[in-house]
Prior knowledge:
Blueprint: E1 14-17, H1 26-33, E2 39-41, E3 45-46, H2 47-52, H3 54-60, H4 70-73, E4 86-91, H5 95-105, E5 111-116, H6 121-125, H7 136-149, E6 156-162, H8 202-206, E7 210-214, H9 227-236, E8 241-244, H10 250-260, E9 264-267, H11 269-273, H12 286-291
Helix pairs in contact: 5-7
Protein name: DUS-like FMN-binding domain-containing protein
Domain DUS-like FMN-binding: 17-153, 202-289
Pfam family, one: Dus
Amino acid sequence: MTKEDQPLDRRKTKFYLAPMVRYSKLAFRKLVRLYDVDCCYTPMIYAKNFLESEHCRSSEFSTTPGIFVSRLKAMNISILPDDRPLIVQFASDDPFVFGSAAELVYKYATGVDLNCGCPKSDVRAKGFGSFLLNRPELLADMVRQCRARIHDPDFTVIFLLFFSSRMCKTCDDDLPDLFENTRTVSSGKDYRSMQKGRNGFHAEKAGVSHLTVHGRTPSMRCEPVDYDAIRIVKESVSVPVIANGDVTQRSQALEIAETTGVDGVMAANGLLYNPALFAGYEYTPASCIRDF
């Protein structure tokens, strides 16, 4: 077991726990925060159910402020980590519902994420996840609705999307008009020569504050992550970008950040196998097991 010697306060790249159904709940979030995870996501929550059902709200969303010993509170020292920063991920195709659900969690979270990347057939069949990439104007409307309901510039609104450099090699009509520079790439043009990606988000103008990019298209579920595509997105937008996909070691995460220029790196399965990976541990340390 090794731990890389790089203090958190000297590290520019932020580390994220990805949204995972059943797994990225409060207990696991509290654990990974002890091992250099800077920001956590909740599992995906269906916004309509969350809005309409108290049972759904109580079972699907839980968080906690830090718990203080009275003598330590004055020094702002917590004996139980605060579950912040926290991003609540919603699945929705309705601007009003998404905005209303975001309003419900506003006091308890740092921000919300609209899932427009999930490739699972059951999610797509409901019009959620990566299906939303076919409806760029709806995506922008959902962000605007959220911003109209929550007048707080510090409240984060994030999109999680799938994107591959293959999309840059298709003709213009093959790719939904999600990015501003839709006419900068012609059929067959090498995406590596692009100074700007063809996808500077309409949603960025609508108020998205971060983008999380999984470097695959929805159909590339088992293929290697396309880090060139992530770099293209980073170069095309002004908001912070988080890279997602196949991260299993801290050194790998830092290399991805250096290669793509992203502001943060996200892990899912890698943290399930080793919750301490972002702290530089090659294998799960005994202390991590005790902490859980």
